[in-house]
C-alpha cells in the first residue's frame, strides 16, 4: 500500500489525524488528508466549550462538518472528548455538587446522543490522573468524588451503545505509576461491569522519549480484554531520530492485535499545537518526511 490509511487497513486498523474544520477545503490540506487518512478526530470542536457554550444550548457546527467530511469519504471518526478538566465553558467552572453532576450527564447525553451511531470510539474521559497515579484534583473530582468517571462511562453507554468507550491520557507511554493507576481502574471497571472498551494513549513524545516498555504496556491493557488505541501521536525533533521513534510506536501497535489504530495530532508541521516544533509526518509544505516513510514501512 502507498498511503497510511491503506497500509493500516491491510491489518484491519485505521490511520487517523486530528483536523480543524476551517482547513478541510484548503486544497493542499484537504488533498493530503483525503489521500492518506481513513480516520479523523476533531482537534478542538467537539470539546465541551465548543459544543455547549451555554448550558443546554448545543453547537455542533464544527463537529458536523468533520463528521460529514469523514462520512462522505468512508473515514471513521474518533470522538474527543466528552469530559475533561480543560476547555470547559465558563458556566461549568462555577458549578458545584449535583448541579455539576447533572451538567456532566446532560452534556454526555447531548453530545454522544447527537452523534449516536457515527463515532467509532469516544474519549469519554480525558486526563483524570496525575503522574503519581493519584486522581487529578479537577472540579469534577472535587465536586463529584471518585465515582464521576464511572458515571460518565455509564452515561456515554446509554447515549451511544455502539461506540467504543475509551479512557484517554498522556504520560502513559510505558509502565509507570500513572499507567499502573489507569490499569487498576480498568481492571476494577471490568470486574464490576462498568462499560469501558478501550484506553487511548495520547503519546505526545520527543525523539528521545523512553519507549522501552511502550509495547509491553499496550499489551497488558489489551490483556484485560479491552482495545487500545494511540490517540494523539506527535514526536518532537526531526530526521532519523524522529523517524525511529515513530517506527517504534507504529511497530508496537502492529504487534498488539487489540491495537485498533493510530491517530496523529495533526499531520503537517504547518499546523501543530506544538508551535515551532516539527513533530508531524509532513513538513510545512506537505512534503513527506523521513518519519512518514518509517511509519508507512512499519504498518
Ligand atoms: C490541544 C489542541 O491541539 C490545541 O489546539 C488547543 O489549544 C489545546 O488542546 N491533550 C488533548 C488534546 O487531549 O485535546 C489537546 O489538544 C492536546 C493535549
Automatic annotation (TrEMBL):
Lineage: superkingdom: Bacteria
EC code: 3.2.1.8
Domain GH10 intervals: 17-298
Keyword line: Carbohydrate metabolism, Glycosidase, Hydrolase, Polysaccharide degradation, Signal, Xylan degradation
Active site (record annotation): 232
Catalytic activity, reaction form: Endohydrolysis of (1->4)-beta-D-xylosidic linkages in xylans
Family membership: Belongs to the glycosyl hydrolase 10 (cellulase F) family.
Protein name: Beta-xylanase
Lineage of the species this protein comes from: Bacteria, Bacillati, Actinomycetota, Actinomycetes, Kitasatosporales
